[in-house]
Write a structure and sequence with these properties.
Structural class: mainly beta
Helix content: 10-25%
Number of domains: 2
Strand order of the largest sheet: 6-5-15-14-11-12
Oligomer: single chain
Number of strands: 15
Largest sheet: 6 strands, antiparallel
Amino acid sequence: MAVTGARVCATVRTVCGGRRCHAPAAHSAWRCRHEDEQSQYVAGRNAIWRPRCFGDVTIRDSRFDNLSMAYQHTDPSATFVAVTDEARASLDCKPAVRMTAFPFKVGRESRQTFERLRTEVDRRLGGVPPLNDLYLLEPPSDSLHISREHLAIGHVDGRFFLVDRGSACGTAVAGARVGGDRTEGRVDLHDGDEIVMGGPDSPFIFRFHIDV
């Protein structure tokens, strides 16, 4: 008697990779168990698995659907966005800079050509670590707003904060002054906070954004 609507064991060889069927030929394919009955799993970031095949019926093991979630890890990141034209110019005409490693140190690019060359040589030779992760450009003037080692942005226990590194003119975060006169200070950072590097009349205004 022919089985209608399902593959019989004779067709299983094509469907399931040539595995030998141990069930009688008269049984419908969905009752056929094969030697490769058990799923094979490969551990890793993206789990690779082969479903158990019962002829026309494919059975997925839901226990492994979200296995890769255990390996996912999101590192903190934030963006330093220029608000004013002067701030954009200090970023070498870039609209923003993304921060992915903390503490993220910010300071003014040195105006002295020889000192810049010496620092670059020492950095390449591994003699001294770089002073900053981000060097801001400020035109030469009698009153500079940005210090060579101005501020650092840190991240600890899921919270961002700003540390003034003893700058001459200080920093303003959301209207609150921190540092200045070579004194240090620390303040928490929140998404959307405005950061003014320098005195109250400084044109170097940035905005802090937390990347989601």
